[in-house]
C-alpha cells in the first residue's frame, strides 16, 4: 500500500474501527531492527487507533501488517486522553445556581464539588451560564434533561475548570409585564434609564439570608473603618 491508500485506510478506521480488517505496507528494501522499531513507534505516536506488526515471511523486503485496535483498546485510549472537564450551558428558571447544581448532583448521584462555575445567577429569572464538570461525560450529564426542568446543552471538552472571576460580563434582557397602557411618560422614563442607568438591587447572593445580622451591615462598618464593630457583628451572626 502507498501513502494515499494508508491515509484512506486510517480515515476509514476513524469512522468505523470494525469496518476495515487490515492493510499491508511493504518497503523497497529490508529494514534493520532499529528501522523497524522506528516504524512501529511512528505508527503508535501518530496513528493511535491502529497497531502494526512485522511480517516475517518476506526475505527481500520488510513488510508490515496494520490493523485497527480492538474496541476495548480504543475505549481505553479515549478514556486516557479525554479532556478532564466537560463544559456545558445550564438554563434554569425559578432556582438559583447553587440549588440547580444540587439538583443535578442528586439526579446523577455525584458530589457537588465536581462542578465549578464563574458566578451565581439569580433565582427570579431565566438564566444561562457555563458550568464545568470534572470527570463527568456529556452522555451522563445529558440525562438531567429528561429528569428535571433544568436544561443542559452545548457541551465541550476542556482541560481546565471554571473559576469565580472568569466571567467576562453579563447580558440582561428585561421583560416588563402587565402593562395596561404605555404612555409617553413611560417611554421617557425608559429613555432616562437607558441614558443614566438605574439603582442596582442585589439579592441573597450579596447580602446573605441570615436573620440576625446581614452582610451589608458588616460591610457598612468595614467601609467606615469600624473594624471592632464589624468583627462584633460578624461573631454575632455566628
TrEMBL record:
InterPro entries registered for this protein in UniProt: PsdUridine_synth_cat_dom_sf (IPR020103), PsdUridine_synth_TruD (IPR001656), PsdUridine_synth_TruD_CS (IPR020119), PsdUridine_synth_TruD_insert (IPR011760), TruD_catalytic (IPR042214)
Family from the record: Belongs to the pseudouridine synthase TruD family.
Protein name: TRUD domain-containing protein
GO process annotations (BP): pseudouridine synthesis; tRNA processing
SUPFAM superfamilies: Pseudouridine synthase
Key words of the record: Isomerase, tRNA processing
Lineage: Eukaryota, Amoebozoa, Discosea, Flabellinia, Dactylopodida
Pfam families linked: TruD
Domain TRUD: 197-238
Species the sequence originates in: Paramoeba aestuarina
UniProt keyword tRNA processing, yes or no: yes
Amino acid at each position: 500500500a502507498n501513502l494515499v491508500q494508508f491515509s484512506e485506510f486510517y480515515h476509514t478506521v476513524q469512522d468505523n474501527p470494525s469496518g476495515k480488517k487490515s492493510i499491508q505496507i511493504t518497503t523497497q528494501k529490508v529494514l534493520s531492527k532499529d528501522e523497524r522499531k522506528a516504524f512501529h513507534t511512528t505508527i503508535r505516536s501518530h496513528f493511535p487507533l491502529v497497531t502494526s506488526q512485522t511480517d516475517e515471511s518476506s526475505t527481500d523486503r520488510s513488510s508490515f501488517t496494520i490493523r485497527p485496535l480492538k474496541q476495548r483498546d480504543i475505549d481505553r485510549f479515549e478514556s486516557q486522553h479525554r479532556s478532564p472537564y466537560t463544559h456545558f450551558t445550564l438554563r434554569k428558571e425559578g432556582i438559583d445556581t447553587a440549588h440547580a447544581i444540587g439538583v443535578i448532583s442528586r439526579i446523577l448521584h455525584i458530589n457537588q464539588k465536581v462542578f465549578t462555575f464563574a458566578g451565581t445567577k439569580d433565582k427570579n429569572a431565566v438564566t444561562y451560564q457555563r458550568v464545568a464538570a470534572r470527570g463527568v461525560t456529556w452522555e451522563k450529564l445529558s440525562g438531567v434533561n429528561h429528569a428535571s426542568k433544568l436544561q443542559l446543552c452545548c457541551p465541550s471538552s476542556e482541560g481546565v475548570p471554571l473559576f469565580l472571576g472568569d466571567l467576562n460580563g453579563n447580558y440582561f434582557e428585561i421583560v416588563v409585564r402587565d402593562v395596561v397602557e404605555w404612555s409617553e411618560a413611560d417611554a421617557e422614563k425608559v429613555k432616562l434609564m437607558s441614558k443614566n442607568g438605574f439603582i442596582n438591587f442585589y439579592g441573597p447572593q450579596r447580602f446573605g439570608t441570615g436573620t440576625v445580622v446581614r452582610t451589608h451591615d458588616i460591610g457598612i462598618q468595614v467601609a467606615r473603618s469600624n473594624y471592632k464593630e464589624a468583627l462584633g457583628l460578624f461573631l454575632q451572626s455566628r
